[in-house]
Structure formats: structure tokens, C-alpha cells
Amino acid sequence: MNKSKDKLSRYVTTECEKLVAGVLRTLKRFEVYAFYIEDLTHYIASMFRDTQHLEGKSRANARRFFLRWNQGKLRQLLREMGEKQGFEVQEVPAAYTSKTCSSCGTIWTDTSASEVSKRIFGEAKKATVSRVAKQIKAPVKGKYGRITTENFVCDCGFHADADANAAVIIGRRGLAGYFVNTTSEAAAEEEAEQEMQEIPSEDGVLQAAVA
Ligand SMILES: [Zn+2]
Fold it and tell me: What is the pTM of this model?
């Protein structure tokens, strides 16, 4: 089993390094020497959301797989490789970056986000949303937003690629000096770790991934 894990770990690292090297090359080509990245909280939230449809062991395996092998790998490499090459790298809070309109600033919430938010932030969605909204001075509404994986739509008339919209929000938070709160990040990690420990250990997914 350890052999499979090592093999998978090396594979993931190599692929991530290639990806990051490509991103840094592109930034240099456009003479960009600073960038902002989302913190881990969002990653765990979306990973949990992506595994929501699975049940029992499958879900536990999928979540453990993501946590163990992919958690923060890209972020870590972006930071390490970026800084080594002279980039300025900062992390910004990721809450609602994919739900905020980059044109008018409205935060669009939906009920499916509620459970995830509760689990990740340890509090009801409303409290989290209003906290974020207050910080970035945005109104809060309840439909539209990220309507599919690819599309973001707002009632102000703005629509865009959902990732491009989120990237603008991340960039703006960075430019505003709205950097990550390491305390809440640590709390989110701890909570995710705790949840993982409550699920019985299964390595099937690892075998499946390297098969
Ligand atoms: Zn809008």
C-alpha cells in the first residue's frame, strides 16, 4: 500500500509542478510579478460539495483522497515556486468569491451552500455571509450567482465565465489588502481533519487512482 501511495504522491506532485510552472511562465509573459491565491477553506468547501452526492464509504474515500493528496498542494507550489522566481504571493479569504458579482458586488447565496458553510465555518451561513458582506460592503441576495460550474449571472445584467468572475473578486480582495485570516483557516483545517477522523479508514480510492 505504501508503494502505491508514494507512486500517487509523486505523480500528483509532478503534475502540480508542471501546472504551476506553466502558470508562472504565463504571468511572466504578461510581465505580472505578483498574484493572489484563495485560501484552503474554499477548497475544502468545494471538495465537500463535489462529494455530496456520494454515500457512505465512497464519500469518505473521496474526501480523504482529496484531503490527503490534493489539499493545498497547488497552493503550496504556487507560493514556493512563485517566491523562488521572485513573485510576490499573497493569500486572500476565499469565502463567496464564486458567489459575488464582480460588476456590482452583490453576493448571491443559495441553500445548498448553507450546509457546507456551516460545516466549514462552524456557524450558520447568514452569519458568514453578512460578515463577508460587511467587509467588502456588498448587498446580499438569494438567487442568480453561479448558476452552473461555468456561468455566473447577476440581475444587474452582468454575466461571465464563473472562474473569471471569481478571479476578479480574488484580485480585488488582494489589491484591497484583504488577506487571509490564519486563525479561521486553521480552524477550518482542524474541523475538516476532525471529520476525516470520524470516518473509518479506507484506502480503496488510492488503489483505484493508481490502478
Ligand atoms: Zn451584479
Answer: 0.58
